[in-house]
Amino acid sequence: MSSAQYESMQQAGGSTSSAQSSSSDIVFACTHCTAQLIVDAAAAGMTVNCQECGKPTTVPHPAVQAAAEKAKKISDIQRQLKENESQRVEITGYINQLSIQLHRWQIRLETLKERQQKLEGELAEVSGFAVAATPAAPQS
Ligand SMILES: [Zn+2]
């Protein structure tokens, strides 16, 4: 690659570099200032001067860069899975707690229904009505 070609690539790799990158370009970050740089794929492994800070930085090989991105993606997905799992455990815990509470309320409600029937029976007896009257509370 001639220096003229490199010059034009450096100009193309301005702030809009990522939008202009083609499949044969390598987009990478400067190791010093993390500026987004773009060079031709032929420059892989070479050391170039960053157009932002002027310091020499190494152009990564696409395969190495892809592997690094893949590893980052894997760890990101694993982190999200872990986060998802902890939320799942938390919500399952809430549901279990509420299920126990619901069960307690249902038992309490049954007890109240039985007490109501008993009291209504007593009331009927004291009032002189037949005990065998139709139950006031509907059976559930
Ligand atoms: Zn730099």
Instruction: Give the helix/strand class.
Output: mainly alpha
Order of helices and strands: HHEEEEH
Q: Find the count of extended strands (DSSP E, 2+ residues).
A: 4
Q: Count of helical segments?
A: 3
Gyration radius, rounded:
37 Å
Q: If strands are numbered along the chain, what order do they take across the biggest sheet?
A: 1-2
Q: Ligands bound here? A: zinc ion
Low-confidence stretches: 8-19
Beta-strand fraction estimate: 5-15%
- The residue fraction in helices comes out at 55-70%
What's the average pLDDT?
83
Please give the largest β-sheet: 2 strands, antiparallel
Distance from first to last alpha carbon: 87 Å
Net shape: rod-shaped
Describe the 3D structure.
- The structure is a single chain.
- The protein is mostly helical.
- 57% of the residues lie in helices and 11% in strands.
- The strands form two sheets. Strands 1-2 form a two-stranded antiparallel sheet. The protein has a two-stranded antiparallel sheet with strand order 3-4.
- It is rod-shaped.
- The relative contact order is 0.07.
